[in-house]
Design goal:
- It contains six helices and eight strands.
- The protein is α/β, with parallel strands linked by helices.
- The chain folds into two domains: about 30 residues; about 140 residues, Glutaredoxin, CATH 3.40.30.
- It has a five-stranded mixed beta sheet. A three-stranded antiparallel beta sheet has the order 3-7-8.
- Strand 7 and strand 8 form a beta hairpin.
Length: about 180
């Protein structure tokens, strides 16, 4: 009889520990949500505060155009760096962020041949494509592309990194994210 009582107490203790663990995990997620979800929040705010592409392509300023998705881990990883660049250059350059999951931007996705994200296109003030950066990029690489706008960077230079997310075509002939590469 004693062994049954001990097993019962042990079972109750284990259940209590498991419950306590889950409660502490939930509390930690709530308290530290800004740390865990900060890149997602930055990425979302960049998209919400983006310059409209029609305005950007017609106001005689160079344009930084990024195609992204909120589910893209590489996009989220780059978001704080891109935000810092935006803070530094936003007076001189348009910053446009287009979410590939929004059908509203379909024409731009096709125009700039987006098949992997993040994709950054740097355009001069006349709207000419200067460089395309696909995938995870170092902040310095992006900064160099921006700084070289006035210095005459080679036209249509492409820098592709293997860390990017694939974009495919769905049955409705609309570009849609398919996999995370």
């Amino acid at each position: 009889m004693q062994s049954g009582s001990k097993e019962s107490i042990l079972s109750i203790n284990i259940k209590a520990l498991i419950g306590l663990f889950f409660i502490l995990t939930i509390i930690c997620l709530i308290l530290f949500r800004n740390i865990f979800f900060q890149p997602t929040l930055i990425l979302k705010s960049l998209g919400e505060l983006s310059t409209d592409p029609v305005i950007a392509f017609n106001n005689n300023k160079p344009t930084f155009l990024e195609f992204y998705a909120e589910w893209c881990e590489v996009c989220k990883e780059m978001a704080p760096k891109v935000s810092a660049l935006k803070d530094r250059y936003q007076k001189d350059i348009n910053f446009v962020f287009l979410n590939v999951d929004n059908p509203k931007w379909q024409s731009y996705i096709a125009k700039f041949n987006v098949n992997g994200i993040p994709q950054v296109n740097i355009l001069d003030k006349k709207g000419n494509l200067i460089s395309t950066l696909i995938g995870k990029q170092e902040e310095q690489t992006i900064r160099d592309s921006i700084d070289n706008l006035n210095g005459g960077l080679r036209s249509n230079e492409s820098i592709v990194n293997s860390d990017f997310s694939q974009i495919g075509v769905n049955k409705n002939y609309q570009a849609a994210p398919r996999s995370h590469g």
